[in-house]
Amino acid sequence: MRYTILLLILLLTGCGQGAVVFAPTPIPPDLSPIRYTHPSGVFSVRVPPDWAVYTQHRTDLVSAHFTPPGEITPIIGIAVIKLNTTMDILSIINTYQQQIRQDRYREQDRQAVGDGSWRLSGLRITIGGLAEQINTFIQQTENFVSVLEVVVPDDPNLQAQAEILINTLDINPSATLEPSPLSTLGFVTSSDLQVENIHAWTTPQGVYFVTGEIANYSSQPLFDIPIRLELQTLDGQGIAEALDTVMGYAILPGEFAPFSLRFGQGQPPNTTRYLFTLGNYSWNPAETNAPRIIGADGMTWTDSSSIADDGTLVIEGVVTNTGDEPVRDPLATVTVFDASQNVIAAAFTPVMQGILAPDESVNFVFRIQEIGGTPTNYIVNVQGFATN
């Protein structure tokens, strides 16, 4: 069984989704490239300290995608596998280019580079129909295969920074990685779980929050997803952490669930970024004895909101079992957004303990006092367990 750990190393201001961009405030005094080592130890590169890093860590595939400040998507991606068969470099290149690439791509040129890798130049057609210049570097180190892909930037400064990263890639063939076929590289850009709409904020009382939501793009419900947030200094030293699970019983396929991580002592003054870990080695999403989840397929709910005199956001509602079977222990979650779709608050509350019978209704209420902005909309979700 393979386990998946997704990591986000992000600077502390901003919002977004996927490989989220966080612009540093204030700008660090030294933006010289620092050594980034993938959590697996399989590879390392030198990267500017203010670039966001999105990391995938499977037992048979490791990858990292790097996004400079001001960009909304990564411009460099690195993926490494340990090949389970013998292939020469040209066979690897041809198979990858012709059978494994997932993008709309046309190769224009290829040439061997002095360090043993090959550089492939081509054009990628984006979803919007625009053409991007792509350089792909494929290298074989013993039985490890690395693919480094660069969206060639127009900015000369970005080009220089990208060149440093490209030329400092170091593969560690003694690191642990399960052997797998070359086709495993086709999973680099896919992820069952996506972290979206992250927002970091501090209350007037000095309590520090990081809030957001998790999207489930898999085909199965995912239960009790562990999350961990470590506050770090610019050089990657951990100085505080928070542990929790995603709110709600499960994230159903194609749905979202919020999280809220709280640091009661506030943000340490030397914090410049954080490491977000989604999942861990003891969590196995494919093996659960949890009962079947009932949500909007068996319940409906109405809700309304108001602001109390003390500024508390009050969300009240009624849940009704509109299905044919009882629902056990219904639980409500709420995700609150600002005008930019940042998650500025999240909460959960038991609707009731016990059985909600068919045609039965029950009230619920949220009273949210700690909010990281001006609320403009919210989403309530209700889940319960089937009794059989």
Oligomer: single chain
Strand portion, in percent? Answer: over 45%
Number of helices: 2
- Please provide the ordered H/E string of secondary-structure elements: EEEEEEHEEEEHEEEEEEEEEEEEEEEEEE
Helix residue percentage: under 10%
**Largest sheet report:** 12 strands, mixed
CATH fold-level topology of the largest domain: Protein Transport Mog1p, Chain A
Counting structural domains, the number is 2
What is the name of the CATH class of the largest domain? Alpha Beta
The CATH superfamily title of the largest domain: Mog1/PsbP, alpha/beta/alpha sandwich
| Class per helix and strand makeup | mainly beta
Q: What is the arithmetic mean of pLDDT? A: 86
Unreliable stretches (pLDDT < 50, length at least 5) are 1-7, 11-29
Outline = globular
